Give the backbone structure.
Amino acid sequence: MQEYFRLLMNFRQLPTLCNLLQLVSCDTWYRIEFARTRYGLKIFETTLTQNILYQFRLYWEQFPTTPIRMFEAIDERNNGNDIELIIQTSQGFLIAPLQAKLVYDTNQYDAMDHRNQINDLITYANGVGGVPIYLLYNYYPDITFIYNSSMCGVGFSKEQFGCSLVSANYL
């Protein structure tokens, strides 16, 4: 939890979008860890998604000029997404429909191949001119064998793997 409080202090001192993303990712890691290390406790993808949407809403309320917005998707069954991510750029708006997946305690994303979801997500994203992305909720108790604390000179903690983005086209 020390890493969470470090990131929380960073965010309180400098409430940037980058610091928020790091904090949300770390919070996700620890929520999954908490559920997985307590007998009988469960964690659900929908709960994590709702928590993230709420955290972004609070941030946007405080900083309404933030060029990023997140909304709960309207029709997951047909469109394949849980979240509508909209990013304002100098060239216009970028739409990224996100499908969230929680890593199981088997360290697999067993629900990754759910119905025709990936194709629905890609089709929907193409239809709105967007980028189809999977938002992965992660926790792995023994990540040390693959963990490197720096990438391209930027330091980060293992807990910041709590949320990862992967192109649906890649999958």
